[in-house]
Design brief:
Strand content: 5-15%
Distance between the termini: 55 Å
Number of helices: 22
Largest sheet: 5 strands, parallel
Strand order of the largest sheet: 5-6-7-4-8
Radius of gyration: 26 Å
Shape: globular
Order of helices and strands: HHEEHEHHHEHEHHEHEHEHHHHHHHHHHH
Length: about 475
């Protein structure tokens, strides 16, 4: 067997994965040792191990096979470091970022806090000011980078195309999502990405409220020409948050249209966020609405259950919160309306556990009324199969067979979905029960999640089974009430 070169292995994987996935899940893995049968790898947490096993195990094995010529089994060990131990005991975590000095070039590994130039100084002719990144004092700051996952990955990729500046089709950019889904965070990420690449550009962030207030004040103070010069001629990239808030404000819309046209005519870039799709904007002047409709519109979708779990895992990793995968699944299952509330729920239970000096596990969540722990712990794969068998009228022997009949395939997928959601069994074991592999289980989960969202009739069947599982009273012999 050839000697395993872990650095070369990781580098080969980097080429096959999106950057966010590589940075979040593969890069933190550390090589420990290997023999003729196994490779021992270190991970930061059990949740990290679970995500790697379910999503990246095949990629790792193929890369290792290319290096060694052998199929080696993956063994994981949680590496508990002193700093991680201290972080888990500390108060509510925040990631403090120090701004680089003006003379320093920002590095790719640093998340720079862009210099803030007050409105009064934005009109100075000082050469340093003209070369600086211009941001309003209310520029949004976040403790973690924007975390790309399945539900927002396409929006993130388009946003980075806009930030790179080489694709004219990505300019102007309109980011659309419901409230609390991360569009302001993504707009912030765009600004920082542009600043890292081209720190000499004059980048300006504003909201519809700040923009309107500043415009009105300039008219009252007879400084309208300075206001117009600032936005039309002293801005290379305009990041405008919540353009839908300008509904009914005709004068603000007209001024924004002139700014919009001038920046694009000079080769600049403009990005907007909106809580309503452009086609649904009301009380907007037609020229501005037409301009917005001509841009690249990207949606941040609502995440499904598994995507919520993945997002919470990334947040806990970046915020150095030590938490079990079962806790993340319980928090994700709470039914939050949006991403902001979802992440807030994780931080809230983490802080509460720290204040009470208790470990953050399902026992703690059950005590606080977050879950009915006794019910979820006794749900077994056999019970789930029996429930599907009874309600769908499909024999388990058919579910375990190779049959591709639509009714049997759907029952099999629902059973896999419920097994992944309500048991702690590895994906490989769930798959083996049905004569499939772990990739089939992942596909089944995604398929059922999508069907529940877009096909109400079939979705109701699954929701009915979910209610039965969650409402039942467990018995000593685990008899399933039908």
């Amino acid at each position: 067997m050839n000697q395993l070169d872990w650095t070369a292995t990781v580098n080969s994987i980097k080429e096959d994965l999106p950057l966010a996935q590589f940075q979040n899940w593969v890069k933190p893995i550390e090589y420990i040792r290997s023999d003729e049968k196994r490779v021992h790898l270190g991970v930061p947490s059990r949740f990290h191990e679970d995500m790697v096993r379910s999503r990246f195990a095949d990629t790792l094995k193929k890369a290792i096979r290319r290096q060694t010529g052998n199929d080696l089994q993956l063994e994981f060990e949680v590496l508990v470091r002193d700093e991680n131990t201290e972080a888990s005991k500390s108060e509510f975590p925040t990631l403090e970022v120090v701004a680089p000095a003006p003379s320093q070039a920002p590095s790719a590994s640093t998340r720079p806090v862009l210099r803030l130039i007050e409105t009064e100084t934005a009109y100075d002719d000082d050469e340093n000011t003209s070369a600086a990144a211009l941001y309003a004092p209310n520029y949004p700051k976040f403790n973690t980078p924007f975390l790309a996952s399945g539900y927002n990955r396409l929006a993130y990729q388009c946003a980075m195309l806009f930030a790179e500046g080489g694709n004219a089709q990505a300019n102007p950019l309109i980011i659309h999502s419901a409230v609390g889904m991360g569009k302001t965070h993504l707009l912030s990420e765009i600004g920082e990405a542009i600043y890292r690449r081209q720190p000499q550009l004059r980048i300006r962030y504003t909201t519809f409220e700040a923009f309107t207030s500043e415009m009105v004040k300039s008219f009252n103070d007879k400084t309208a020409s300075e206001f117009q010069r600032k936005y039309r001629f002293e801005t290379d990239v305009l990041l405008f948050d919540d353009v839908a808030g300008l509904a009914g404000r005709k004068r603000s819309q007209e001024e924004l249209l002139h700014i919009f046209n001038e920046i694009l005519a000079r080769g600049g870039r403009v990005a907007f966020t909106t809580s309503q799709s452009v086609t649904r904007l009301t009380e907007f002047i037609d020229p501005l609405k037409s301009r917005l409709a001509s841009g690249l519109s990207i949606d941040i979708k609502t995440p499904n259950f598994e995507e919520k779990v993945e997002l919470l895992g990334q947040v806990s990793f970046h915020s150095q919160i030590s938490v079990e995968a079962t806790v993340l699944r319980s928090v994700a299952d709470k039914g939050q309306k949006d991403i902001r509330e979802l992440i807030g729920s994780l931080f809230r239970v983490h802080l509460q556990a720290q204040l009470e000096n208790k470990p953050l596990n399902n026992e703690f969540l059950a005590k606080e009324g977050w879950i009915q722990e006794s019910q979820k712990e006794v749900i077994t794969l056999d019970e789930i199969i029996a429930l599907v068998e009874h309600n769908f009228g499909i024999n388990r022997s058919d579910m375990f067979s190779k049959s591709r009949k639509q009714a049997i395939v759907w029952a099999r997928q629902v059973a896999m979905y419920l097994a992944r959601r309500y048991t702690l069994l590895p994906l490989e074991e769930i798959g083996r029960t049905f004569g499939r592999d772990h990739a089939t289980v992942i596909h089944a989960f995604d398929k059922v999640s999508e069907t529940m969202q877009f096909q109400p009739t079939q979705g109701y069947q699954v929701e009915f089974l979910i209610k039965k599982l969650e409402a039942r009273q467990p018995k000593d012999n685990y008899e399933l009430p039908l």
